[in-house]
Amino acid sequence: MSKIHVSTEINGDQVEFLCETDETLLDVLRDQLGLTGAKEGCGTGDCGACSVTVDGRLVCSCLVLGAEVEGSAVTTIEGMADGDALHPLQRHLLEGAALQCGICTPGVLVAAKALLDKNPDPSEEELRYWLAGNLCRCTGYDKIIRSVMTAAAEMRGEKS
Amino acid sequence: MNVKRKFKVLGTRPVRPDGVEKVTGKALFGADTYATGMLHARILRSPHAHARIVSIDTSAAEALAGVKAVITSADFGEVDSEMTRDTMHNCMANGVALYDGHAVAAVAAISKSVAAAALKLIKVEYETLPHVTDVDAAMQPDAPVLHANRQHRSVVAGTPGNVVYYCDFGHGDVDAGFAAADKVIERTFKTAATHQGYIEPHACLANVGSDGKADLWCSTQGHYNVRLICAEIMGMDESQLRVTASEIGGGFGGKTTVFIEPVALALSRKAGKPVKLVMSRDEVFRASGPTMSASMDIKIGMNADGKITAGHAKLRYQGGAFPYQMVMMGAMSAFATYDLEHVRAEGWDVMTNRPKMISYRAPGAPMAVYAVESVIGELAAEFDLDPIDVRILNASREGTKSSYGPTFKAIGLVESLEAAKAHPHYSAPLGANQGRGVSCGFWFNFGGQVSVSMAINADGTVNLIEGNPDIGGSRASISMMAAEELGIPYEKIKTIIGDTASVGFSDVTDGSRVTFAVGIATINAAKAAKAEMCKRAAKTWGIDVDAVEWIDGAVHPTGHNAGEFPPLSLAEIAANSGRTGGPIAGHHEGAPDKAGVSFGVHLVDTEVDPETGFTTVKRYTVFQDVGKAIHPSYVEGQMQGGAVQGIGWALNEEYIYGEDGRLQNAGFLDYRIPVASDLPMIDTVIIEVPNPGHPFGVRGCGETAIVPPLAAVGAAVCAAAGVRLFELPMSPPKIMAAIDAKK
Asked: Is A15 on the interface with B (CB under 8 A)?
């Protein structure tokens, strides 16, 4: 079976790859492009560990085919920091001890950023519902929610 | 240790050393490594709950282009130890598939898609056998027995064959205690099996060379244990198998054994290439984990003043398809919270056609404590007594002879109960359809074998190698303890987890042992390095080593030499080490055994919708004695995470089996762990009653927090809905049935 040629943009870089017709975007990112920040926790869109954005829209990359991102702009956790400068979300999750094992962290960060891009001032309830698709088994979510709220306040220019 | 020591580093909240990698996606977990020429493996699993494997025909799969190896149980040899043999037969069925999801064959191929296609070409002929998945059914004389003649000597003769272990703890005369009680309540409880639910599936990369040496990369809580098991199964010397622990994406006890590593090693040996094997989520649910389900009878007597006169627990645990001994932990935990004159806890471990159980955070304790605490709450309500006052009246204290034997040293249960009673949460008003619950919890904690090696670098920094995978921030706590002992800044320490060829044996990251045991080894390694640095300073000054002492990160002359020489700092001594005798290091190997037990108290408010039976957790506060919180944020995180796992156990999570013995909810959609929108903030109150068995007072803190939530949420739901429930999870249909039955 011949592979499909795909041209896309990933974290601002032009990228080309060949994928099998049934190969997920997650497998392409991880197995072909060396972008292993997105994790496969379930493969069925239930855990959010593979979260990325495609043209600004938050998706589970395990539910997107590699062939579908032709001509799109994909962002992953690897594109979040600006060189050595961490994004405020990354910094506040670290300072707030909002990760224990860290496997869900990339997905949580990508999802939280997608929310703040749309809504810079979410309520705790809005944030909790937005992140309901990102399973974390370690933290009980408390420190994740607090850290994202603190980062959002900082990004809005509020003093903490 | 009554006087609280002043610390410089302990109790602060620095950023963890592995943090940046984990927020940037660079940290390498089990599935994140690749090798040149690597093959992808998949495992074929039984669709039957119990079936004899008549034949396996792998010829068509082997003939498929791109397939490099196919294995079955025939590719594994014999092993001597019964425990390892069971583990091996759990990784690959030996003649009989014992549960839905049991591995029967595996393939390695050049791509994932070829491996998947090859699985479909393997022809397995099964002869289905009668099955049993319920613990009470499995204990009946006519139940199908999974393994003949595997009963432990503790089991009373004539007991049906699936009962593999029996235990009996306690003291006094429970019948006399019940006779003296103003009221005796006896209840039967059931709790479902739950899965550890780590987000990272099991994953490994095995590379067996033609010279017989092998490298194994895997996600595990204990790579030395992986080496031990795999070397025996593979017939290798331990020295020839190097196991490296990847970053671990959660374990909670579920990664304390092996499920796929021997399969990957066998495939790699057969194919002569590196083999990567990653479980799907479906496989994780069907063939790894879970913890035990339970059926329990609890009888407790109480006087009108709240004094418990006697308690008797009968615990029947279902632990899957192989012999095991875990009910002991439940029987020992059941009444550990209370100072009782008459107490008895019996336990039975039972085999069924379900996946082989493995530890889940405080294994065996949450269900037993749920049942006991529920009856204590009911008795307190019966006498119209405050549930915390009743618990304080009966609480274990320093000097209490515990229900399982030992006498407790300094413990913080009463302090935790008093903190809960004084907390604003306890007196806050409740709304309509809301109820409040309280429960205590207990866990033993563990010490175990440990190795730490520490090098003092010439620039004054320190490299520390330890052998315990960091599952929740332990590199931070270990670095902090090293910094405290050496008197240098936290940032000067770099702690790494060595592979099995880099540092000595270390027990598995379990039993809430790492900060305790690795901490002691770190302190002792630092003391050894400090002793060497004292020698170097004395040599530099030309005075006797007895005439110097270590104060705050530097060596000072003492006695008549005091003030004769300016102190030499760690950095100064290290910089000069090449001229005073060579590199400076410290190491420690040991088996610390004074892990202090830990108690916690949880308070929870719930609201139950009387129309749907749906429960919302409105407020939650955790109180726990942790001895000394090294990094309070990560201690709080353990308390919060344990509480939420317990909430899931209480309300949602369960293994659901059909009449056919197959698991019906092998995915995160149908096996529902708590999500962010289910929960409020989880407040924490850290209690610090130092453990006399640790230089800094540390107690393990990771496991206790999963023990109280089951009964606390249970009591809160019962109060909110005005019903009594005796079965977990308290899913909406069960709550509605109880509400309807009351109408």
From this structure: no
* CATH code: domain of residue A29: 3.10.20.30
Q: Which of B591, B487, B162, B553 is nearest to B352 (CA)?
A: B162
Q: Do B677 and A81 touch (CB under 8 A)?
A: no
Query: pLDDT tens, A67-79?
Result: 999 999 999 999 9
B406 DSSP assignment = P
Q: Give the separation between CA B123 and CA B294, rounded to whole angstroms.
A: 37
In the predicted model, is pLDDT for residue B6 greater than 90?
no
Sheet holding B123-128, edge to edge: B96-97, B51-57, B123-128
Whether the pLDDT of residue B3 is over 80: the answer is no
Question: Quick one: pLDDT at residue B229?
Answer: 98
Q: Is B577 helix (H, G, I), strand (E, B) or coil?
A: helix
Sequence length of chain A is: 160
Whether residues A53 and A96 share a domain: the answer is no
* B274 has a chain A CB within 8 A of its CB: no
The whole-number average pLDDT for the span B704-722 is: 98
Does A64 reach chain B within 8 Å, measured CB to CB? no
Is residue A92 domain-shared with residue A136, that is, in the same domain? yes
From A134's Cα to the closest Cα of chain B, the distance in A is 7
- Quick one: A101 and A53 in the same domain? no
For residue A94, the chain B residues in CB contact (below 8 A) are: 15-16, 19-20, 23
Task: State the complex-level ipTM.
Answer: 0.98
Instruction: Indicate whether A26 and A62 sit together in one domain.
Output: yes
Q: How far is A6 from chain B (nearest CA, A)?
A: 19
Mean pLDDT of B390-395: 98
Which of chain A's residues have a Cβ under 8 Å away from the Cβ of B28?
Answer: 36
Q: Which residue of B has its CA nearest to A137?
A: B198
Inter-chain CB proximity B676 and A132 less than 8 Å? yes
Per the domain annotation, does A71 fall within a domain? yes
State phi, psi for B361 to the nearest 5 degrees: 25, 110
Q: Is A11 on the interface with B (CB under 8 A)?
A: no
Domains of chain B: 19-26+447-590 (3.30.365.10), 39-129+200-249+255-287 (3.90.1170.50), 293-445+596-742 (3.30.365.10)
In this structure, the number of other CB atoms found within 10 A of the CB of residue B80 comes to 7
Contact B152, B164 (CB under 8 A): yes
Which residues have a Cβ under 8 Å from the Cβ of B345 and sit 6 or more positions away?
B168, B169, B170, B311, B312, B313, B315, B330, B331, B332, B334, B335, B368, B403, B404
A125: helix, strand or coil: helix
Which residue of A lies nearest to B28 if distances are taken between CA atoms? A36
CA B25 to chain centre: 26
pLDDT, position A1: 65
8 Å CB contact between B642 and B476: no
Judged by CB atoms closer than 8 Å, whether chains meet at A137 and B673 is answered as yes
B283 CB within 8 Å of a chain A CB: no
* Residue of A105, A137, A139 to mutate, testing the B interface (most B Cβ within 10 Å of its Cβ): A137
User: Which tens digits make up the pLDDT trace of B153-208?
Assistant: 999 999 999 999 999 999 999 999 999 999 999 999 999 999 999 999 999 999 99
Domain that holds residue A22: 4-79
- Which of A79, A96, A121 finishes a domain? A79
Maximum CA extent, chain A: 57
| Pair B91, B229: CB distance under 8 Å | no
